[in-house]
Amino acid sequence: MTEIHPTPEALERFVLGQLAAPEMREIARHLLTGCRQCHEATGSLWDSSDDADDLLDLALEAAGDEELPEPGYDEVLDRVFERMASAEAVVVEQRAAGCRLFDELMQIPAERRHLLVSNSQRFRHRMLCERLLEASYDVGFEDPAEAVDVAQLATLVADRLRPEECGGQECLYSLRARAWAHLGNAFRISLDLASAERAFARAEALLDEGGVALVDRGRVLDLLASLRKDQRRFAEALQLLDRVAALHKRLGQWSLLGRTFLQKANVCGEAGDGEGEIRLLRRALDLIDPQADPRVFLAARHNLINALHESGRSREAFALLFHTRPLYLKAGDRMNLLRLRWLEGAVALGLQRCEQAEAAFREVREGFIELGLDYDAALVSLDLAGAYAEQGRLTDVRRVAEETLAIFQARNTHQEAMAALLALCSAARLDQAGVELVREVAGFLKRARTNPDLPFVSTAGNPTVHG
Amino acid sequence: MSTLDQPQVATSLEGFLERVRPRLKALFIHYRIPPQDTEDLLQQALLVLVYQSAEIRDPEAWLLGTVRNKCLLYWRARRRTLYDSVDTTVLEHVAGPIGPSQERTALRRDLASAMEHLPERCRSLLALRYRQGYEPPELAERLGYSQASISKITNRCLAALTRYMTLLGAGPKKVRDD
Q1: Has residue A403 been placed in a domain?
Q2: Are residues A85 and A134 in the same domain?
């Protein structure tokens, strides 16, 4: 058997893995004998599948200039392009249909939506799923419970779709992975980290099975990194974001790469690596397109100013804030203007302009209270307490600390945050609430926001208090 | 608004596709994807582009990057079939009752000769697999790899053996341990 050489065609099909199993095995056995003649033939075939980036780049550059002699591709491209022209029109119609189904679904009482999606064929619609994912993400921070409900509907739809209903197996797996990741993200925002973990496990299992488009793989990993950040598993969050960055690079999505650097910077900031945060924010700002992504660009600038201020470079922060103010005003919404004012207060405090800082913090606190954003109001109140502490106004520190504690007690949430505020109040009553303790409690409240179980342990010389 | 409608890219899908046609062809030629296999590969990439245009910032770079990745995956899948065939062949001949014992002896000799040219860790792994009949979980335990990584490592070793068989021949050169 081994003395009869396979034909060149059979060898080529062997390397391509295209032969039937018995023939594959027969040729494998023949090659194992070390047949030089056949090695020469298969060796040249093997080279063709290797990734030679430099050669490829040259080929792509030359592609526009010369006629390529390879036959067969044009016919295939013609056929696929023609199909895509029809597909584009169908997708536009499907998108409109998805929006109609979404509106219909949202008018139904929440408790009946799941039943309807489970039982009605009409709601098994790819674009409805896309619309639900969009809605879940948009509503996330305003109404976390609604975001969870909507994302659950999206997973219900995605799990019921068949490949032919959404453009093939890859599209279906990608959609499912994204739906489960969005559900995980909605749970994360709702502070239900255990449920978030379970939802992300489903999304990751789909990634492991393969067949998920790179763009969706990036989205899933990106959302998972946010969960890891909230869990304070910073090294894992950074590793995930490195994978996302590699995907964006591979796909030439530079603006999205900038966004990923912005997220990495946030992780570094949370992990206490201020210099790393500043370096990444500068890289992000080089890549984010301010015309295409004005809000993301503003967020990166905002974070950079804050990071500069927090690392003691308040003059630099002040200069950048001056140049960034027009962007806040252009964004124009109340939240962005409040954030601007808050940052102005913080930078003013860093420059020892305590009165300016105090005025800004008061204004922002009123704004957050009006909007019902109690946690943000509490955070800015502690900055206000910090401004008082800087000036030695301990009675004002005590008053602000007690007002802030009252907000948390009224809501009866965030037990550890209450414990931190109790510690501050106790110290303030003894006129011992110094700048360090106020900063420590403020820093803790920022961290505990996404991790309510984080225990408060004071290191500023005050006794630990548990609520 | 569809990303494809943005001013920095072509004004229509049709125009965009015509513009990227030469580069797509260059990619397929470079990776030597048989024309009949390019159809599904390209269609899958374009469908994602059409469905998710809003999330894609630079459609041309995205499409070329995606198709390039698909070409690599295409070869990876092909190669996996190839590695599986080599693995099955060796297992059937070495361990199974198929074939006369003279042929089995010859194959064992050829296999031993091929394995001499492989990196040390592949020699250990394949020796346990083909001589002792170890399954992946036992290989992981015996060689100290995690259960999660053993199939990847086995695959790499099979790749090294297949590469040796199809590319390097019976010469003195060693396969790189990568």
Answers
A1: yes
A2: no
If asked whether residues A392 and A461 sit together in one domain, one would say yes
Residue B6: its pLDDT value, please?
A: 43
Distance from CA of A125 to the nearest CA of B (A): 13
Chain A segment 354-383 residues within 8 A of B by beta carbon are: none
Q: Is the dihedral of CA A51, A57, A63, A65 positive or negative?
A: negative
In a domain, A3, yes or no: no
User: Does residue A383 surpass a pLDDT of 60?
Assistant: yes
Instruction: Quick: pLDDT tens for A181-207.
Output: 999 999 998 888 899 999 999 999 999
* Cβ atoms A225, A258 nearer than 8 A: no
Per the structure, the complete domain to which residue A71 belongs is given by 8-91
Same structural domain, A31 and A125: no
Question: Where is the domain boundary, A231, A254, A284?
Answer: A231
State residue A1's pLDDT score.
44
A131 falls within a domain: yes
Q: Is 0.80 surpassed by the pTM of this model? A: no
Element containing residue A106 per DSSP (H, E): helix A73-107
CB contact under 8 A, A14 and B78: no
**Mutate which of A77, A174, A222, A257 to disrupt the B interface (most B C-beta within 10 Å)?**
A77
Which of A9, A31, A172 best tests the B interface by mutation, with the highest count of B CBs <10 A?
Answer: A31
A157 and A59 share a domain? Answer: no
Residue type, A260: T
Are residues A87 and A14 part of one domain?
yes
In a 13 Å sphere around the CA of A366, the CA atoms on its Cβ side amount to 6
- Check CB contact of A22 with chain B, cutoff 8 Å: no
Which residues of chain B make contact with A255, given a CB cutoff of 8 A? 57-58
Kindly give the confidence (pLDDT) of every residue in chain B, 178 residues in length, as a single tens digit, with 9 standing for 90 and above.
333 434 444 458 889 999 999 999 999 988 888 888 899 999 989 988 988 888 888 899 999 999 999 998 888 888 888 888 888 888 877 766 555 677 777 778 888 888 888 888 899 999 898 888 888 889 898 888 888 788 888 888 988 888 887 775 533 344 444 4
Query: Which residues in A lie closer than 8 A to residue B69 (C-beta atoms)?
Result: 214, 250
ipTM for the assembly: 0.73
Please report the pLDDT score of residue A275 as a whole number. Answer: 95
Domains contained in chain A, number: 3
Provide the pLDDT for residue B174: 41
Q: Contact B85/A21, CB-based, under 8 Å?
A: yes
The whole-chain average pLDDT of chain A stands at 87
Which one of A231, A266, A286 terminates a domain? Answer: A231
First to last CA, chain B: 46
Alpha carbon distances (Å) from A449 to A191, A230, A375, A381, A416: 9, 9, 8, 15, 10
Measured CA distances, B75 to A19, A47, A48, A359, B153 (Å): 15, 11, 10, 65, 18
**Same domain as A125, residue A85:** no
**Cβ atoms A308, A278 nearer than 8 A:** yes
Q: Are residues A51 and A150 in the same domain?
A: no
Residues A69 and A163 grouped into a single domain: no
Q: Which of residues 77-116 of A touch B (CB under 8 A)?
A: 77, 79-81, 83-85, 87-88, 91
Using the beta-carbon criterion (under 8 Å), do A42 and B27 form an inter-chain contact? no
pLDDT recorded at residue A150? 96
- CA-nearest of B33, B13, B35, B16 to A74 is B35
Of A43, A73, A171, the CB nearest to B35: A73
C-beta atoms surrounding A402 within 10 Å: 14
- Whether A32 sits inside 8 A of B65 (CB atoms) is no
Mean pLDDT, chain B, rounded, equals 80
Does the residue A262 lie in any domain? no
